[in-house]
């Protein structure tokens, strides 16, 4: 159990041991409900066919929404980034998940990301602004720079999430206020 749990992101061996003992002490009924909820989630959740966010349907509620601003697209690294941006309540556009960031040391190049799908969405002619909300890390900056260079000749306004976030940190661990300020104070992305 400790080996399995420590394989999860952000869970070290010490935390995995604590979680394991907690699970062992759980009431059997509560434990079974917990396991059943994990199974149901794994079986019913999927990736949106348009943005690659996590959804129960083929197309997520945000992509299906007629009240969201279709001309404004926020590009994020992972589906969970959408959850944290949505919690701020300040972004009214739609999303595009890259499923990672460029990281040569990890063998991840632009071809492993959903950049071609992003370009296909842009070719539809609806999008007028892209907010690059990749993490403020070397990999996130490299990804934002790459996307910006690919879209240089388009007439789309390209902005980058402001550095209200801690450099080297991730969207997941930032508080709502800092993330809100970062979105609201975005700046044009110049190379």
Helix content: 40-55%
CATH architectural arrangement of the largest domain: 3-Layer(aba) Sandwich
Overall mean pLDDT stands at: 92
In N-to-C order, the SSE pattern is HHHEEHEHEHEHEHE
Termini Cα gap: 47 Å
Q: Please identify the structural class as seen in this structure.
A: alpha/beta
Main sheet: strands, sense, barrel = 5 strands, mixed
Q: Strand fraction band?
A: 5-15%
Overall 3D form: globular
Low-confidence blocks of residues: none
CA gyration radius, whole angstroms: 19 Å
CATH fold assignment of the largest domain: Dna Topoisomerase Vi A Subunit, Chain: A, domain 2
Oligomer state of the chains in this structure:
single chain
Describe the structure.
The protein is α/β, with parallel strands linked by helices and 191 residues long. The chain has two domains: 43 residues, RecR Domain 1 (Helicase, Ruva Protein, domain 3); 127 residues, Dna Topoisomerase Vi A Subunit, Chain: A, domain 2. 42% of the residues lie in helices and 14% in strands. The protein contains eight helices and seven strands; from the N terminus they run H-H-H-E-E-H-E-H-E-H-E-H-E-H-E. The strands form two sheets. A five-stranded mixed β-sheet has the order 4-3-5-6-7. The radius of gyration is 19 Å and the shape is globular. The model has no long low-confidence stretch (mean pLDDT 92).
Brief synopsis:
The chain has 191 residues and is α/β, with parallel strands linked by helices. The protein has eight helices and seven strands.
């Amino acid at each position: 159990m400790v080996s399995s749990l420590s394989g999860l992101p952000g869970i070290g061996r010490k935390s995995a041991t604590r979680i394991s003992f907690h699970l062992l002490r759980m009431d059997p009924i509560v434990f079974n409900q917990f396991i059943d909820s994990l199974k149901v989630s794994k079986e019913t959740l999927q990736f949106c066919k348009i943005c690659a966010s996590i959804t129960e349907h083929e197309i997520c509620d945000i992509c299906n929404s007629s009240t969201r601003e279709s001309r404004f697209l926020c590009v994020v690294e992972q589906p969970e980034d959408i959850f944290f941006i949505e919690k701020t309540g300040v972004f009214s556009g739609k999303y595009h998940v890259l499923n990672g960031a460029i990281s040569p040391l990890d063998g991840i190049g632009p071809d492993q990301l959903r950049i071609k799908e992003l370009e296909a969405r842009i070719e539809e002619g609806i999008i007028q602004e892209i907010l690059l909300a990749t993490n403020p890390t070397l990999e996130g900056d490299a990804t934002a720079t790459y996307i910006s260079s690919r879209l240089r000749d388009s007439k789309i306004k390209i902005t980058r999430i402001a550095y209200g976030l801690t450099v080297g940190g991730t969207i997941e661990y930032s508080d709502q206020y800092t993330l809100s300020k970062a979105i609201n104070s975005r700046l044009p992305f110049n190379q």
